[in-house]
Amino acid sequence: MTVVPAQQTGGGGGSSGLYDVLELVLDRGLVIDAFVRVSLVGIEILKIDVRVVVASVDTYLRFAEACNRLDLEAGPRKDPGLPDLVGEMTESGARGKSKGALSGAAETISDAFKQARDEGGSERETSSRPRARKAAPSRRKEEQE
Amino acid sequence: MSTYVYGITAATHPSLPENTSGVGDPPRQVRILKEGALAAVVSDAPEGLRPKRRELLAHQNVLSEIGADGCVLPMRFGSVAPDDQAVTGVLAERAEHYAERLKALDGRVEYNIKANHVEEAVLHHVMASNPEIRALAESNRQAGGGTYETKIQLGEMVAAAVKDKEAEDATALERALEPAADAVSVGPESTGWLANVSFLVKREVADEFLAAVERARGHMPHLEVRVNGPLPPYSFVEPGPAEPAGTAAGGADAEAG
């Protein structure tokens, strides 16, 4: 719905697990005040910009559309797919999988976040434009470009 | 030459990853700085290091390697000391503290769980359990989609119901996994996921934790649950696992100083 899934869908199957780990690398871990941290311009955004509020006109319209299309007779989808094993990252497997994902997607995290920041300001204007949409709000990025 | 720091571990760590590739392009070679009972895993810090995917991965890979054979206190990405002496200085100064942390986290790894709703399934749930929403959806459908106003009205009701369900499922998921873990750390909220929670798990019972995840997946088929681990204990370097489960939120922001 935000920059986070946008990154995931853009990078292919393996990158959702990758993204999930990188979020920890960036945001958690030991901080020692005697050391300097490299400039993370565009990265600090993570905490703020992903908190895009669900409550927007855009979301409402999307939900309304989805409800219209929903086949109530079919019942809820019982199996949301096999467990997301592909996305899992283990100590032993981290290396190989990371490399695969690397060559698969050249876009850097910082670029993605920068983009998110640039778009942050226009979020509201976009939201007030009534328009039917099947895609998640994350597609907004592509549409604007 | 400034020094990039990956993590802190015990000097007795059985397989310190010397000569592994670290951050930078070309990758800088990983070195070990020992000070008393502690060791810092470092490399030269490349000029103009940026938080790119490749660099974040290099950081994570070095830590994974150390973490596979023993406990490590992972640094947050991008920690740079003026020189090697500054690193060993910090190790000496805070030796007791780091030794205590290493001991507390020994034999434990982090599993990060993120969960989303499967949208169609959650919409089904919301419609099924809310007659008002169902009625409005039906009248909209019969009116060929409904007016802009009724669509907004429906969407607003659905969004509120989905949000409630998110909170409910986040709690349920956390409760289901908590018993298999030593400590819990709740990550930042966002609309990218309904739950982002890290669990500190003893290595020898990791199977039990993963089994609990599988059970949770079975019980909540409308959730997409992503598991990442075992990882170095990023979310548990501070405060300690002595914290009661569920209160360690924001622990990542705690500083060592």
Automatic annotation (TrEMBL), chain A:
- Which family does the entry's similarity section mention? Belongs to the gas vesicle GvpA family.
Q: Where is this region: Disordered?
A: 73-145
The record's GO molecular-function terms, alphabetically, read: structural molecule activity
**Per the record, what is one GO cellular component?**
gas vesicle shell
- Domain of life from the UniProt record: Bacteria
Please name the gene that encodes this protein: gvpA
Q: What does this protein do?
A: Gas vesicles are hollow, gas filled proteinaceous nanostructures found in some microorganisms. During planktonic growth they allow positioning of the organism at a favorable depth for light or nutrient acquisition. GvpA forms the protein shell.
TM ranges are none
The record describes its quaternary structure and partners as: The gas vesicle shell is 2 nm thick and consists of a single layer of this protein. It forms helical ribs nearly perpendicular to the long axis of the vesicle.
Cross-referenced HAMAP family, in alphabetical order? Gas_vesicle_A
Quick one: where is this thing mainly located? other
Question: What are the protein's UniProt keywords?
Answer: Gas vesicle
Q: What is the protein name for this chain?
A: Gas vesicle protein A
Supply the Pfam families for this chain: Gas_vesicle (PF00741)
Instruction: Identify the PANTHER family for this entry.
Output: GAS VESICLE PROTEIN A1, GAS VESICLE STRUCTURAL PROTEIN 2-RELATED
UniProt biased composition (Basic and acidic residues): 114-128
- Location of the protein in the cell: Gas vesicle shell
TrEMBL record, chain B:
Keywords attached to this entry = Gas vesicle
Indicate where this protein is primarily found: other
Q: Which InterPro entries match?
A: GvpL/GvpF
What compartments host this protein?
Gas vesicle
* Region span, Disordered: 238-257
Pfam families named in the record? GvpL_GvpF (PF06386)
- PANTHER family in the record, alphabetically? PROTEIN GVPL 2
The record's family statement is: Belongs to the gas vesicle GvpF/GvpL family.
Report what the protein is called.
Answer: GvpL/GvpF family gas vesicle protein
| Species for this entry | Streptomyces violaceorubidus
